[in-house]
Amino acid sequence: MAKLIMIVDDSASLRQVVGLTLKDAGYDVLEGADGSDALSKLKGQKVHLIISDVNMPNMDGIAFVREVKQLPNYRFTPIIMLTTESQEEKKRQGQEAGARAWLVKPFKPQLLLTAVQKLVLP
Q1: pLDDT grade, residue 1 (50/70/90)?
Q2: CB count, 10 Å around CB of 91?
């Protein structure tokens, strides 16, 4: 059974590019348009990894990570932040919220897949 990875980004084109990269590598993909949308789609199913943007409307990536980590089913789900943000302060906030990795856009698909393979839950 393929592992499920959630992509959270307000850019439909970025979700599509990341989604194709992951699908080509054999993963299943669930998409959220922002933090609120993504939370509403989790519904307790097993998600092996989450890739989230930081800057989004309604609920930003850092707030989303904090919310996800409050949910018992997702407390240990690894989260990669994929964002244009590269400031140390933002990275620190992300780590404190529970993010495990930080990739800066534009990203190289192979770099993303390497991070995914390292962090994805068994």
Answers
A1: confident
A2: 17
- Percentage of residues in the chain having pLDDT higher than 90: 98
| HSE-CB for 5 with a 13 A CA cutoff | 30
Residues 78, 108: contact at Cβ < 8 Å?
no
Q: Which domains does the chain have, with CATH numbers?
A: 4-119 (3.40.50.2300)
| Sequence letter at residue 42 | L
Give me the sign of the Cα torsion angle 112, 113, 119, 122.
positive
pLDDT one-digit tens code per residue, 71-90: 999 999 999 999 999 999 99
Query: Strand 79-83 to strand 28-32: parallel, antiparallel, or no bridges (unpaired)?
Result: unpaired
